[in-house]
Design the sequence.
């Protein structure tokens, strides 16, 4: 049934449909609506779950770890500074292979203090061993969150569902909300491999001496590799049941394009709009949208981008001292591949700045010029920067 | 561990806590009081580290460790999950040390209590956080080679006599468990040792041309590759080891068939060589009463073995193409009892082999070489799948004056030859190379050799250059206190014994490594944070203090707390023998004195109402408690009087005379 929902509401409803048993979350803009809606659901009896009103994000994720380890399906949500505060436990949760699902409303990191959207927060923890899936619109938020529980529980890996703060979290869009019965058929109750149960005692979180630590990490990496197939499998099944199919990446008019834009999240919608206009004029431009950032879809990107002459990566983050994270991983993908496109990195939209059509056109122009000349003079550029303020030409 | 006093405890014996540790007592009593239907969430700390070195665990109840500061939060999550899953009768218990509670863990605890979560929180308070040698270190004692975790107070260990430069036996006066710390690894040509950055080593100090060089103590963080440290070269002397094995007689339970055999009463060269062969190629099935050797027909090794066997035991052996079998319950059980371990990956060299005279050690080495060793040019090589065996064999060779290299790894595929047989499946082996040392002509080149090696001519020690110093990571650490010389030999290097850090619960006046006794500041200058009062102020329905010297009181309080649905807090004072500088046998006495002097009062606060559960009949002066502990021995009379005043005030507040 179609409802008009904000992104935050879609996430809350997805958690409700997934019948989570323990919610442990601390409010932070722009995720607060998720926490508020979920407490309403619990207070009204619409959702049979325990809501722990934790006193910080670090405790929020810690409580999730305890709850999931005990055998309950758990859920939490955060953003930016909250994600940073719980970052110690992110690594513990993935190292302990606990299938926690968290939604992260992408928000820029302090300093300077910002409550607006960019991907700096989830990018800062891209090494933590959580699956990271990015959503383009509110429908995807709802669908991906439901799928996240299936993916997490079958792999014993925690999953982070990311979406743009304010742009999606506080924007109302029509969302098709599936029926509880249908979701129950798609997502059965959580059956843990191991649980903290006096009937069968286990010890979780021991010390890993040098003789064992490396093997644990190798197994985590292996699980991440298996996650690629699992994400596609679950996405297919979801498609069969609910009519919307999901994969690791999405191609939009890119199969015959010389210039391809690469991006994630809500920015993809803006790019698609422009591509339609370019195609109408007869120009061969395309988009590849990355849905799964971790695990990184190496094979799929080689197939999708290999034939292009130039790829322009549009991203709302920068790994300070290097380049944008999406660009770095994509460039690494092609390092030993013979047929590889020229690549350009466009940093845009930091701290919630609007990414306008003019900026995207500039990126397309930059890529087209590179495709024509066959060389890239400056790989990393900033879009929409007020150059007079910084006195630089970047 | 058949002789453990509490073999069925829910905290299984075999963990790494020091002898006399107060905290592990607190854990055992707690689980005895609470029973099996609990889920324990523990913070990083002494107790977590000594009980869960993967792949082993001491916990017979569900147990989870997440991080240092969040035991309360994790336990809150567990409690919520138990409630949501309808698991009635299972209690969520959080356990943390004083650091993980009063300092970094205070926020999570406060949140848990404020929310009213159904969790029993136990704080084990040893008044600080503690450091030293990695618990994997091997120490040479009078009884042979021991893991540092096995060394007890009163054991005699080999130390370096600074005047005569000879090895001497000195008594160990304390073993200290210092929790987790950053560990560095020092590598010389023949030795490796792991220690914390503040651990002192005996190094050579060159004082320049014409001046005498000398040996000085330097901490690890001040050492550089190229510095020379004192290492052990040779340790001889030793007596044959007397066995204490009770033979099985005909007519004993389940013994119907028995081959009469006389077992040796003490070790000797023939037996040691036999055992050397056994370690490499033998196994024991003691239920079947069978000893076997995988030695193919026609080999040198088999000839040697059969000859030794008839000389030692007299009874016949059964042979086929690949194997030699001995059917004797007594021989099987005898070999089993000697401590060499079983299984290719788990064989080891027990401590007593290190105490043998040189001739017997040489025979043992001969036996080992016959089975899994071979000569390559001038050096001998020994191959094994057991890392522990290689490690100890290396140390044994070093005490015999051999030159031994590092342990190398070798991967072999199925079907490849290893020594002289084909492998059944893929395997990873380790090997070491060793050779006899060349004798230096000291008379001819005296000054040159003296320059090269400060201890040239010394039969037992030598100087070795440090080749590499690298950071290993965080590991549990232990230290020994040795009388007089204040040094001991660990992993073949001469090391010093040392010291511990403060927490918010460190009492006023106590020495710790971060509150040392100096000219300007003397020990901890802040009073103990009153955690029970803080938690009571939150409105928790039940808060109590306890002591490991009063286990009945402690366990009653735990049972009471567990029965309440809501946040409850029990704070148990548990001495740490190295941190408090007390003898391992004095844990209970010191704990009792803490209560009898009023320094630690046993009470409970139930819904805001205070009830002292033990009033000392005649309160003793606090100096009786303080003087038992090394961490307070620096106190002046004035300082002791100040502490007495604080204790008097506390007792007045709590209604005790």
Sequence:
């Amino acid at each position: 049934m179609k409802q008009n929902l904000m992104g935050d509401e879609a996430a809350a409803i997805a958690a409700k449909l997934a019948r989570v048993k323990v919610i442990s979350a601390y409010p932070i803009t722009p995720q607060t609506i998720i926490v508020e809606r979920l407490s309403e659901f619990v207070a009204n009896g619409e959702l049979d779950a325990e809501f722990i009103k934790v006193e910080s994000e670090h405790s929020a994720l810690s409580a999730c770890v305890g709850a999931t380890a005990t055998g309950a399906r758990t859920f939490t949500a955060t953003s930016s500074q909250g994600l940073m505060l719980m970052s110690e436990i992110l690594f513990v949760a993935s190292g302990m292979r606990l299938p926690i699902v968290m939604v992260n409303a992408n928000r820029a990191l302090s300093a300077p203090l910002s409550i607006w959207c960019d991907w700096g927060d989830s990018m800062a923890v891209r090494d933590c061993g959580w699956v990271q899936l990015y959503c383009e619109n509110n429908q995807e938020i709802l669908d991906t969150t439901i799928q996240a529980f299936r993916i997490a529980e079958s792999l014993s890996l925690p999953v982070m569902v990311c979406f743009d703060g304010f742009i999606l979290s506080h924007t109302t869009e029509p969302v098709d909300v599936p029926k509880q019965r249908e979701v129950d058929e798609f997502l059965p109750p959580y059956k843990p491999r191991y649980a903290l149960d006096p009937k069968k005692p286990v010890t979780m979180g021991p010390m890993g001496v040098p003789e064992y630590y490396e093997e644990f990490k190798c197994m985590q990496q292996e699980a991440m590799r298996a996650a690629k197939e699992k994400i596609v499998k679950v996405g297919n099944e979801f498609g069969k049941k609910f009519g919307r199919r999901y994969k690791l990446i999405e191609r939009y008019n890119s199969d015959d394009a010389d210039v391809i834009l690469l991006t994630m999240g809500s920015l993809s919608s803006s790019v698609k709009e422009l591509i339609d206009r370019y195609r109408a004029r007869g120009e061969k431009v395309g988009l590849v949208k990355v849905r799964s950032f971790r695990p990184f879809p190496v094979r799929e990107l080689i197939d999708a981008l290999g034939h292009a002459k130039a790829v322009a990566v549009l991203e709302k983050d920068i790994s300070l001292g290097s380049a944008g994270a999406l660009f770095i991983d994509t460039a690494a993908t092609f390092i030993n591949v013979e047929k590889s496109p020229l690549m350009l990195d466009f940093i845009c939209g930091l701290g919630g700045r609007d990414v306008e059509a003019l900026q995207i056109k500039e990126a397309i122009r930059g890529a087209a010029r590179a495709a024509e000349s066959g060389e890239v003079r400056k790989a990393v550029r900033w879009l929409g920067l007020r150059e007079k303020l910084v006195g630089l030409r970047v | 561990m058949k002789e453990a006093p509490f073999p069925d405890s829910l905290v299984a014996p075999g963990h790494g806590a020091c002898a006399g540790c107060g905290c592990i007592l607190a854990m055992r009593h707690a689980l005895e009081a609470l029973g099996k239907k609990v889920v324990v969430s523990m913070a990083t700390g002494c107790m977590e580290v000594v009980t869960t070195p993967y792949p082993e665990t001491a916990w017979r109840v569900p147990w989870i460790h997440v991080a240092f500061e969040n035991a309360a939060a994790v336990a809150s999550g567990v409690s919520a999950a138990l409630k949501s899953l309808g698991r009635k009768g299972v209690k969520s218990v959080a356990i943390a040390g004083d650091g993980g509670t009063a300092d970094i863990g205070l926020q999570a605890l406060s949140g848990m209590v404020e929310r009213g979560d159904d969790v029993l929180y136990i704080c084990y308070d040893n008044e600080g956080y503690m450091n030293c040698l990695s618990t994997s270190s091997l120490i040479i004692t009078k009884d042979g080679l021991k893991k540092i975790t096995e060394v007890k107070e009163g054991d005699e260990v080999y130390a370096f006599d600074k005047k005569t430069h000879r090895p001497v036996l000195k008594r160990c006066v304390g073993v200290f468990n210092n929790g987790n710390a950053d560990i560095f690894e020092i590598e010389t040509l023949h030795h490796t040792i792991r220690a914390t950055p503040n651990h002192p080593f005996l190094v050579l100090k060159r004082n320049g041309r014409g001046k005498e060089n000398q040996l000085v103590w330097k901490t690890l963080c001040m050492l550089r590759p190229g510095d020379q440290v004192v290492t052990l070269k040779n340790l001889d002397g030793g007596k044959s080891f007397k066995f204490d094995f009770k033979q099985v007689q005909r007519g004993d339970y389940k013994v119907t068939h028995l081959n009469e055999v006389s077992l040796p009463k003490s070790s000797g060269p023939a037996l040691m060589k036999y055992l050397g062969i056994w370690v490499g190629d033998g196994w024991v099935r003691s239920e079947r009463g069978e000893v076997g050797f995988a030695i193919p027909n026609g080999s040198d090794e088999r000839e040697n073995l059969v000859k030794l066997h008839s000389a030692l035991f007299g009874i016949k052996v059964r042979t086929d193409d690949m194997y030699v079998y001995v059917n004797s319950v007594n021989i099987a059980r005898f070999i089993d009892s000697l401590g060499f371990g079983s299984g290719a990956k788990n064989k080891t060299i027990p401590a007593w082999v290190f105490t043998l005279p040189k001739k017997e050690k040489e025979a043992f080495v001969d036996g080992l070489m016959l089975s899994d060793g071979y000569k390559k040019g001038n050096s001998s090589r020994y191959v094994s799948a057991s890392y522990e065996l290689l490690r100890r064999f290396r140390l044994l060779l070093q005490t015999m004056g051999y030159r031994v290299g590092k342990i190398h790894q070798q991967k072999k595929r199925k079907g490849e030859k290893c020594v002289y047989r084909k492998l059944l499946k893929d395997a990873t082996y380790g090997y070491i190379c060793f050779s006899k040392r060349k004798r230096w002509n000291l008379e001819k080149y005296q000054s040159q050799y003296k320059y090269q090696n400060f201890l040239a001519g010394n039969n037992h020690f030598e100087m070795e250059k440090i080749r590499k110093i690298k950071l290993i990571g965080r590991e549990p650490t232990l230290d020994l206190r040795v009388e007089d010389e204040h040094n001991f030999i660990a992993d073949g290097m001469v090391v010093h014994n040392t010291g511990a850090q403060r927490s918010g619960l460190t009492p006023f006046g106590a020495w710790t490594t971060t509150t040392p006794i100096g000219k300007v500041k003397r020990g901890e200058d802040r009073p103990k944070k009153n955690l029970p009062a803080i938690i009571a102020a939150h409105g928790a329905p039940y808060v109590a203090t306890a002591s490991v010297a009063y286990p009945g009181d402690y366990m009653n309080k735990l049972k009471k707390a567990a029965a309440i649905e809501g946040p409850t807090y029990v704070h148990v004072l548990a001495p740490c023998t190295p941190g408090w500088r007390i003898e391992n046998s004095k844990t209970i006495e010191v704990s009792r004195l803490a209560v009898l002097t009023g320094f630690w009062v046993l009470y409970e606060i139930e819904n805001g109402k205070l009830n002292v559960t033990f009033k000392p009949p005649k309160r003793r002066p606090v100096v009786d408690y303080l003087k038992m502990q090394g961490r307070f021995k620096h106190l002046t009379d004035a300082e002791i009087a100040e502490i007495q005043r604080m204790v008097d005030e506390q007792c007045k507040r709590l209604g005790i005379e």
Chain B touches chain A through 51 residues (CB under 8 Å). Chain B has a mean pLDDT of 83.
